[in-house]
Design goal:
The chain is an alpha+beta fold. About 55% of the residues lie in helices and about 10% in strands. The protein has 4 domains: about 5-140, no CATH class; about 165-210, SH3 type barrels, CATH 2.30.30.140; about 300-320 and about 330-470, no CATH class; about 480-530. The protein has helices spanning about 15-45, 55-65, 70-85, 95-100, 110-120, 130-140, 225-320, 330-355, 365-380, 385-395, 400-410, 415-425, 430-440, 445-450, 455-470, and strands spanning about 165-170, 180-185, 195-200, 205, 210, 480, 495-500, 505-510, 520, 525-530.
Length: about 525
Amino acid sequence: MLTLDREQTTALDYSVVNTSIQETFTAIDRFEWQAVDEILQMREQQLYLQAGYKSFEEYCQRELYAWGGYRRINQLLGAKKVIDAVGELGGHIKNERQARPLLRLVKEPEKLKAAVSLALKDNPSPGESDFAAAANIVVPQLPRKKQSSQEPMVPKIQEPVVPQKAIVTVSQQSHPRYGEKGTIEADAPNRWQQIVTFADGERLLINNADLDAASVPFPRERNYPAEYSEAIAAIEERHKQELERLEQELRIGLQAEVSARAEEQVQEQIQSLQNLYKQQKEQNIQLQERLDEMEGLKKLEIENQQLQQRIQELEHAVEQRPSQEWGNTMTLQATKVLNKQVKQALQQTIDLRSLAQEPPKENAQECLRLMGMALKNLASAMNNTQALEAAAIILGSEPTPTAIAYRAEQLEMLPQAVSDIRRVLSKPGCSWQEFWDVAQEYEVIKSDYWAELSIQETDLITALQKASSQPDIIGVGSIVAHADPYRTLYVARGEVIQDLGDEVIVAWDCWKEQSKKADRYFRDELRFWKGEKQ
């Protein structure tokens, strides 16, 4: 059911209203079938006895009179019999009105199924008239006999009247007067009970179902005058309209709840995807750092292989010489060969010195460190001053073995220092304190790792240092939380959107869906939110 405002009537079209009407009637039929199942539970398990009712009929008349009483319940139960008897075809019977013309065929299931199949053949969505026509074709119904026109005209009685002095017998075994006879001498107070006077003069109000008097026409339903009938019909129409309105509001409320739940699920999925993206980004950064480390190790392995090959060549050259040519000291020929090799090494040392003045662009510090170490080892082995000076120029230290060794140890830390610093800078919301905790371990090689960093990374470090030197003052744009740990907003996140001097206005993220989205606070009532300045 669709509730329409007068101002919005023109905005609706036929399809919207028609769909709403069909959904409303479908819901009413579904609830009616649900009521049938509950009625069967009440009757089969005799739950009405717990409320003091003697019979199922009395329960229906007393509790369900507003929905048609026992007569309407019998109609619904009859429709249930039709649905059960027709089997798989029962899904095409939507309500009790459609099942009513088929009730007379319920004792003949084959004919009943034939009637339903015939109705479905002519119309995929048959109505009450289609089922009635199909049932009449399968089992023709004899026409009712009309009353003779010669019969005297008897005025209709508004309500069955119990004859005076009617003798009845109490047939209910649980009744204290079971088996005793009494006389009905007064009009019935309602349509389901009678006032019975017994032989001892006692007058009791007894249900019609507890009395055995086949000749007494007990009233089953109450008839009203024409003016009352019209008033009752008007009341029923208003009740029906109110019921439709409530059903529409319930449906709209359910739709709104479903929409809100779906929106909440979408928000949760978006949040989970954002978290997943953040995790993948961090993993990619770690993988990139790992790849850089592996690339450096690969280059070191290649250089190590080249040195091993050179050592093998020298050993091979020594093995080719006869053993007798070697003694406690080197012979003249060996000295000549060694001097030739030293000369070549010194020539290469000159090239290394020029290379130190203009290092290669890729991994320059690592290359220079390895070359400096090689020259330092060569100077130690050959006691060559030029090699020692070349190593000092390359490594940037004093031309002494101790200074060169100390400088080489410093440069060995350079790849790890650059990796650690870049990992910290790549974190979202990196602060100066986090950077300084890592950088102070490599303070002795600050100039070295600073040269390895990109311009963007050095600019970020400078900005973090400037931000850390500024005082922590909560202002417009600050991300804050409540300072009182006993307040709910202590763990909530908010943003300062306006500065009022001594006070500020904070918009809380958790209040976005509420009517009140911001509030005023003094600065000492707030603190920087976790993840920002503390």
